[in-house]
Write a structure and sequence with these properties.
heterotrimer; A mainly alpha (340); B alpha/beta (313); C alpha/beta (507); A: 340 residues; mainly alpha; ABC transporter involved in vitamin B12 uptake, BtuC; two-stranded antiparallel sheet; 4 strands; globular; C: Rossmann fold; 25% strand
Chain lengths: 340, 313, 507
């Protein structure tokens, strides 16, 4: 009903705009923003090292956004990702700097990475398990784990950053692939991000697990009655998101050469914004990882552009807020016109 | 509402006087957040001091939320603490809470951030290092080094601003800018990195692209400047023997980096010294009735650099 | 018909959506103060027509006249102000507000100070309800009312806005039989007051009871507009579907084979008691009973959706336990749920994806979907079920009710189950699609599937079942063979006058 009303109330212009957004949407906006920034920064924006900066900066959010896309496809949410980033990061840092000090570097690297990923998986599993089995909205559960693991991070680090990663570990965030035939270098974080995007895209499009996610997001009741083990799929997805958050935590810790107490704080909002701008509906059932890729790139590009132009920080937060509202609005309008 | 507050105060006073009868009453410490190493150091120093003086202290962090700090102070009034050491998150916002402390007759000493005297609340003493002076000292240090390098004060300086809207960020920048304005040949570019290391790195990456030549970097805290250094090292474009990098707070990381010859300097405000001194003032007043000699005890912020680091620590 | 008798006139009105002509050259008159029925299969253009009248859409060409002037609404609110309002199946009430507040929602009576005059509101709401001759307390919360009463509140709301034309979209779909008479009485009262009612229903008997005239739509065109007095049901159906429906219930006698499903002593606390019966391959067993007698719950219990407290289920002679629908599906059982939109389909997904849903495992190798197999299966189902869709990639939400139901059938048929549990298989589907579904049931029967069919429509139960189980208060009150079937006997069992046939039917 409301949808139908909106359609007429807004008239043809709005409808055309939403139609346009649906069809070409994010990609066109992205290219447009890039073009504007290129002009306004006098070409600075398009310099290879700047583009390298953007993709490198974006990949830390992006890796998590890939997993967040799957969770939002259910119409659900995870607020704990920022805390998982800090938690897994501090674990990896503490292992190298405190607990395993002086041991074989390769062995230390392997243990640090494994423990961090396992910890992320465990928190993700907990989020999924408790919210499905106790039938509590994940908003609440992850709000809880968000706080818990921020606290655990402070405990482990004794409120101090842990600095001084091993050279091998530092390569995760700092190193890059350099091939002679490539005109540019590709930083490891970017590779990790793109691999995550590719795998997730394949999983969502081509596997029965991915189909199940879309089905559950569209209609959990119908999915269950069609034989999909809804809880199992949800728990697995939350676990995957937990692992991806740790991956992001590892990259961040490696790049900063430091396990930070405040790492990842507030990331959840940027990540969710990226996913939603990328066209994944907060109501579930619709969206794609490729959209998310563009969504997080768009945010990164805007932020980078504002930095390059020396825009005041006040404006940055205003612009970011505007983007969030615009994205959600487009999502609602899209849904509204579909019911026609 | 008003009645309720009065009632709470009456009850608080009652409980307070009952508690006062008991021996060895507890002291309270309210500070912004554990997640910032500056305050973590401060808290530790206070607790060490309390142990030394053989008194109990309850210290509570407020997660950087003003409202939470106020309710913590109110709770401490109800519990009838002997005295309160207060590290305000925002100096203006805690004024009503300090008024209540005054009403309850609980002495309060502020540390780090000073409540403006124009509010007329009673504060036994303020112990702090002036952030504005800290910013000035950082700027003077950078000017000095630039002059040594180029023969005159000139060059491009990046200022990494702290958390937008927070007191220390405003003060440190104010002091820094005040000095820098006197040198027309020094260009200062400012951007916020929210006091966070990852933001410092990200903002610097963008500066490296937009600013062809960078001579010095000032971060309103060490975390930001350390992040910036990561970015500059990764870019491979900077000669760290010539690049001037200055942070603020003198955290362990920063000191190590100075020893390693990477970070040029940082501003030490001696949070431990501030806090333990503040606590001593509070204790002497409560236990022996000694009034402090001065209401404001300022510890001069000092630049730590390779030349003086070994004698300071 | 005198010119000023005409309240609404369509003159060659058309409505075009991208790729679809929803209404084509529609022309007819609606007489003031009449009950005018609109009938047609799903997708015939009824809803588009309503949306034009209520200001949601505007016609692409042609004219629509209201009281002799061009109808020119920009939104539903303007329509409302002009006196045209629609009452939809999904009622637009705020459950947490009182009846009076709902009636005057958006236009409350004001006191001189400009504040809401609550007392006047209550009195005026009470007057409206009194006029409608219903006993509803204006102070009651809407959420405490049943669907039928909520509908009356909607009508009162329309009257409070001084509505001159009220459109009722399937008003009887969700209300109990005995409340229908009340509704009809209200409609007649309104008609006497000169209010025009546009009445939309799939139930042709209702159309004949209440409507003065009827307009038949098919494929966006008006087939005919006639006074109901000049029509009979067979003729009306012929007009609607465009062909003679020889038989509404094309029953084929059963050739029962081996036992497909057996239920013994099934119970669920407070819901089901000691249910035992068996189902053979190749037969359709109807399940009848009043609302709340446990029919749907029985299907859900068998299917593993709801936990059972005791009893066993045998499939093909072997005892099975189903912890979740997945187990039941693996054992060869399929469920067509009561509400296809909430339980049967993922509306956002394509026809193809919906068809593939229960067969994800079958259609994938180590978790990776075999797209070609999925396409092939969906194509086969589309052809078998005669699903009318422009493409298999079309979202199911864009299909008509009948076609949606065929997709639900298709998704199960693709798995070739041995036992089908049908819950209201033809609810909300038009006559033509109903017959198609019945034909598909016959086909399943011939291929040796067993069907357990729950339905509230007694004629459907009588028309299609080989046997009928009648439920009452969570128990099977009796069983009737096809030879013994009659409306009366089923009702008697359902209400509780008689208990027959059990001993002989189940050994």
């Amino acid at each position: 009903m409301s949808a139908e009303r909106m359609e007429n109330g807004g008239g043809g212009v709005l409808k055309t705009f939403v139609w346009f957004w649906n069809k070409a949407g994010i990609l066109v906006v992205f290219l447009l923003v890039c073009a504007i920034l290129a002009v306004m920064t006098g070409g600075l924006f398009l310099r290879p090292e700047n583009i390298l900066n953007i993709v490198r900066q974006v990949s830390i959010h992006g890796v998590v956004a890939v997993g967040m896309t799957m969770v939002i496809l259910f119409g659900l949410i995870d607020l704990s990702v920022g805390s998982i980033i800090a938690f897994s990061g501090i674990l990896a840092a503490a292992l190298q700097v405190k607990w395993m000090k002086g041991q074989n570097e390769l062995w230390m690297f392997a243990v640090a990475v494994f423990v961090a990923l396992a910890a992320g998986a465990a928190v993700g599993f907990f989020n999924g398990f408790v919210s499905t089995k106790a039938k509590i909205h994940p908003f609440i559960i992850t709000l809880g784990t968000m706080s818990i693991f921020r606290g655990v991070t402070l405990l482990i680090g004794n409120a101090r950053p842990i600095t001084g990663m091993t050279p091998l570990f530092r390569r995760i965030g700092a190193d890059e692939i350099k091939w002679d035939w490539l005109p540019f270098v590709i930083p490891y974080p970017v590779i990790i991000f793109l691999v995550c995007v590719a795998i997730a895209h394949f999983v969502l499009r081509k596997t029965s697990f991915g189909r199940s996610i879309y089905a559950i997001g569209g209609n959990p009741e119908a999915a269950y009655l069609s034989g999909i083990m809804v809880d199992r799929v949800k728990i697995l997805t939350y676990t995957i998101l937990g692992v991806l958050s740790s991956v992001s935590g590892l990259i961040l810790t490696s790049r900063l050469n430091s396990g930070q107490m405040t790492a990842g704080q507030g990331y959840e909002m940027d990540i969710i914004t990226g996913v939603v701008i990328g066209g994944t509906s907060m109501l579930g059932g619709e969206g794609s990882v490729l959209g998310t890729l563009l969504g997080v790139l768009l945010i990164g590009v805007i932020q980078n552009g504002m930095n390059l132009m020396g825009v005041q920080p006040y404006w940055q937060t205003i612009v970011k807020g505007g983007i969030i509202i615009l994205a959600v609005l487009m999502d609602r309008l899209k849904r509204a016109f579909q019911t026609d | 509402m008003r009645k309720l507050m009065v009632a709470v105060l009456v009850v608080a006073c009652l409980f307070g006087s009952m508690a006062r009868a008991a021996e060895n009453r507890e002291y309270g410490l309210s500070f912004p957040t554990l997640a910032n190493i500056f305050f973590a150091t401060l808290q530790e120093a206070v607790e060490r001091k309390a142990e030394e003086l053989n008194v109990n202290i309850v210290s509570l962090e407020a997660n950087n939320e003003v409202a939470r700090q106020i309710s913590i102070v109110e709770d401490m009034i109800v519990q009838g603490k002997a005295g309160l050491l207060l590290v305000p998150i925002e100096t203006d916002a805690v004024v009503p809470a300090v008024e209540k402390l005054n009403a309850a007759g609980i002495p309060v000493v502020t540390v780090d951030r000073r409540i403006s005297p124009e509010f007329g609340v009673k504060v036994l003493a303020h112990v702090g290092a002036d952030n504005v002076i800290g910013g000035e000292n950082a700027a003077k240090f950078i000017v000095d080094r630039l002059t040594k390098l180029h023969g005159e004060p000139k060059g491009t300086v990046i200022e990494l601003y702290g958390f937008v809207g927070s007191g220390p960020a405003i003060d440190r920048s104010e002091g820094f800018q005040r000095i820098m304005k006197q040198y027309p040949n020094i260009e200062v570019k400012t951007q916020t990195a929210q006091f966070m290391r990852d933001e410092g790195m990200r903002v610097m990456e963008d500066f490296i692209v937009s600013t062809p030549r960078i001579d010095a970097v000032f971060g309103a805290n060490d975390e930001m400047v350390m992040g910036a250094i990561e970015a500059m090292q990764a870019s491979g474009k900077f000669d760290f023997s010539k690049l001037i990098t200055v942070g603020f707070d003198a955290i362990d990381d920063a000191l190590q980096s100075i020893r390693d010859g990477v970070l040029t300097g940082t501003i030490e405000q001696f949070p431990g010294k501030q806090a333990s001194q503040g606590f001593e003032v509070l204790y002497s007043f409560v236990a022996k009735g000694d009034k402090p000699a001065s209401e404001v005890i300022l510890i001069e912020p000092q630049v730590v650099h390779k030349g003086n680091i070994d004698e300071l620590y | 018909m005198a010119e000023n008798d005409v309240v609404l006139r369509f003159e060659g009105a058309s409505k075009r959506f991208p790729g679809v002509l929803a209404l084509s050259d529609v022309a007819f008159d609606v007489r003031r103060g009449s009950v005018h029925a609109l009938v047609g299969e799903n997708g015939a253009g009824k809803s588009t027509l309503i949306k034009i009248l209520t200001g949601v859409h505007r016609q692409s060409s042609g004219r629509v006249l209201y009281n002799g002037a061009d109808l020119n609404f920009n939104n539903p609110h303007e329509a409302l102000l002009a006196g045209i309002t629609a009452i939809y199946q999904e009622l637009n009430l705020v459950p947490t507000l009182t009846v009076a507040e709902n009636v005057f929602l958006g236009h409350p009576p004001k006191a001189s100070a400009g504040t809401v005059d609550w007392r006047a509101m209550r009195v005026m709401a009470g007057d409206l309800l009194k006029f409608l001759e219903v006993d509803i307390d204006p102070g009651a919360l809407v959420r405490t009312l049943g669907v039928a009463r909520k509908q009356v509140v909607e009508i009162a709301k329309a009257l409070s806005m001084d509505a001159r034309v009220i459109i009722m979209d399937e008003p009887t779909a969700a209300i109990p039989k005995k409340e229908i008479d009340t509704l009809f009485r209200i409609i007649r009262t309104l008609r006497e007051r000169g209010v025009t009612i546009i009445y939309i229903s799939h139930h042709l008997d209702e159309v004949f009871t209440i409507a003065d005239a009827v307009t038949v739509l098919r494929d966006g065109r008006v087939v005919d507009t006639m006074p109901t007095a000049e029509l009979d049901e067979a003729e009306l159906i012929r007009l609607m579907v465009g062909r003679e429906l020889t038989e509404q219930y094309p029953y084929h006698p059963a050739k029962p084979g081996a036992e497909a499903l057996r239920v013994e002593g099934l119970a669920r606390k407070g819901v089901l008691k000691n249910i035992s019966f068996s189902l053979r391959a190749g037969e359709v067993v109807g399940v009848s009973g009043m609302v709340g007698s446990g029919r749907t719950e029985l299907l859900r219990a068998i299917y593993g959706v709801d936990p059972v407290s005791s009893g066993s289920v045998y499939v093909g002679g072997a005892a099975r336990r189903f912890a979740a629908p997945r187990d039941a599906i693996e054992a060869g059982i399929a469920l067509l749920p009561e509400e296809r939109k909430t339980g049967g389909l993922v509306l956002l997904l394509s026809v193809m994806d919906n068809i593939g849903l229960p067969s994800l495992k079958k259609l994938s190798t180590r978790g990776v979907m075999r797209d070609k197999d999925l396409t092939r299966t969906s194509e086969r189902m589309r052809d078998l079920m005669n699903i009318k869709t422009p493409s298999l990639k079309q979202r199911v939400m864009n299909l008509s009710g009948g076609n949606q139901q065929k997709v639900v059938l298709g998704k199960w048929f693709a798995r070739d189950p041995k036992v089908y549990l049908f819950d209201e298989p033809t609810r909300g589907i038009d006559v033509g699609a109903k017959v198609e579904i019945y034909n598909l049931m016959n086909r399943l029967k011939e291929e040796g599937a067993a069907i357990l069919m729950v339905s509230s429509e007694l004629p459907e139960i009588l028309g299609m079942s080989d046997r009928v189980l009648v439920m009452r208060e969570g128990e099977i009150a009796g069983e009737l063979g096809r030879g013994e079937l009659s409306q009366e006997r089923v009702l008697k069992l359902a209400i509780g006058g008689e208990s027959i046939g059990r001993k002989t039917a189940v050994d």
